[in-house]
Amino acid sequence: MTKTLADMTAEEREECVGMWAEFRSTRGIILGYEAGYVRLLSPNRVGGDREVISHTHIGLTHLLPDLPRAWTPDGKPVDGKWEEGNVFVCFDCEPGEYPVSIEGLTEGGMSYFSEPPSGIEVDIDKYGEGTGEARRWVNDWEQS
Hints:
Elements: H1 10-14, E1 20-23, E2 26-34, E3 37-42, E4 52-57, E5 61-63, E6 81-90, E7 100-104, E8 110-113, E9 122-124, E10 129-138
Antiparallel strand pairs: 1-2, 1-5, 2-3, 3-4, 6-7, 6-10, 7-8, 9-10
């Protein structure tokens, strides 16, 4: 079993602020601690559009070291840069294919989706094809 936050010293726990953790089936980003509880920010929990802050028991909360850190322990953004990209849409595709692809302009590579991700605007013509622009935050991270 993974080491829980309760197995760590207070100093080790403070270094985990900004990292992803899990309490039962709730995943979130560690905001801080108070009186034996962890404050987790759970973005878009249960399909909603708003963020939820949960107070979870410190002894039952596990780190998720395979997910990248959201921010540094002092609240600053992790080092990285914005990558611009092009979005291509073609809804007239074969079954099992993804109609939306995003090509990174600086790092290269393609990402595929069943529909344009939230916040990305795409101009689609009468044939179900279109293009748009996207950008994402790119950084190098290491598993802890």
